[in-house]
Amino acid sequence: MNVQTAIRPEQAELLQQARLEAYSTPLEDFHPGAPRLFQNDTLWPWFERLRKEAPVHYCTKAPIEPYWSVTRYHDIMHVDTNHAIFSSDVSHGGIMIRDVAPGYEWPSFIAMDEPRHGDQRKTVSPMFMPDHLDELAVLIRQRSARVLDSLPRNETFNWVERVSIELTTQMLATLFDFPFEERRKLTRWSDVSTALPKSGIVSSEEERRRELEECAAYFGRLWKERAKAEPRNDLISMMAHSEATRHMTPDNLMGNLILLIVGGNDTTRNTMTASVLALNENPGEYQKLRDNPALIETMVPEVIRWQTPLAHMRRTALVDTELGGERIKKGDRVVMWYVSGNRDEEVIENPDAYIIDRKRPRIHLSFGFGIHRCVGMRLAELQLRIVWEEILKRFERIEVVGPPKRVYSSFVRGYETLPVRIPG
Ligand code: HEM
């Protein structure tokens, strides 16, 4: 299949250089989790080579602790669906490539094993059930319309700030019933909690700690109020009144809050930005969408695959085991690279292409699989669907007018800025 793309020439050149480097570097020197590969979007040839030549690869030469990289679709599925062998528990280091730093071991249910994980997940999952999503859809549509109507015409602005962050933060404020006018605090706490030391988001560990303590104190107050009041339909109230979570330690509460803030914020936000970028890089697909807005239905899962907003999840082996012919030892870090599985040519046809009317767009790995599969996935899809329905009603085009600035992280695959212009 021939797909027309419009990638910026500077980016195409950068990728070409990365390809030469990736194919001339000895495999034992590979460190696919290096955040710079994600910041400049040159990860692709590195993962392509790993899938072909070393699909289960052990990295020992990085400035972080040794880790296995699992890069093929079916091997990732194997790890994600065998939670008795591969643990998510924070006591083993958690779900990111780097072990959780000492002092930050807030237990959240994404970083717990059974049975605690299941009990706590059940507490919040009604929030994301179809009936409740139908109610939220009305609000999401009103808000999307309001934000889109406020955008300038014929003027360059940052899509990330004006649309993606604004809409996802408004949603989060609703899910928590958080004071609406203070909602940007949620965005800040989300950024601070996932920032790497060199990302520039916080200038020191003290600053990070101070801000997250403020977060804990703020939610602590909301928790006390909700615990005293009658049960309501927001995430804090749900946790404050459920048997599985009402006696959580303050650390566990903080862990779950950060999980829900990051889960609901970074991921959907970055996909919303990606959806504009992908259509600009693929003008033929943009035309298809304008000609047939019903394609939003398949475009949404396709952009979630194309972006893969969480590039990896990590597990720790609980026993000695084998994977793809390699011997994994008890205690080893095993990183599932969803971003690579989503480009596995053995499962996904023409995987590097962005095709909004794919036949089976939902087979991607971006939401994970197994017991930790994303609890908010239907909400994320709903937000993306509605924002695009409203965009197509209003604008002929949203033009990307400069390169995106990407986040320095191999966990959150996202954007700090995307300059756009709406001709009017
Ligand atoms: C495009 C958007 C999203 C993507 C790509 C995404 C991705 C993921 C992934 C990869 C996992 C872990 C799966 C695993 O370990 O197997 C996860 C779990 C989770 N996500 Fe999402 N997510 C998105 C949106 C959301 C939203 C909107 C929310 C909530 C408001 C949310 C809340 C969570 C929670 C609470 C978990 C933990 C589930 C568990 O451990 O059982 N996510 N998500």
Percentage of residues assigned to helices: 40-55%
Roughly how many Å is the radius of gyration?
Answer: 21 Å
- Alpha-beta classification: alpha+beta
Query: What are the bound molecules?
Result: protoporphyrin IX containing FE
Largest sheet: 5 strands, mixed
- What is the straight-line distance between the termini? 34 Å
CATH class: Mainly Alpha
- The dominant shape is globular
Mean pLDDT: 93
Tell me the strand order in the biggest sheet.
1-2-8-5-3
The CATH superfamily turns out to be Cytochrome P450
Descriptive overview:
- The chain is α+β, with helices and mostly antiparallel strands and 424 residues long.
- It has a single domain (9-421), classed as Cytochrome p450.
- The chain has 15 helices and 12 strands.
- A hairpin with a 2-residue loop joins strand 6 (321-323) and strand 7 (326-328).
- Helix 13 crosses helix 15 (377-394).
- The longest helix has 32 residues, at 250-281.
- The model has no long low-confidence stretch (mean pLDDT 93).
- It binds protoporphyrin IX containing FE.
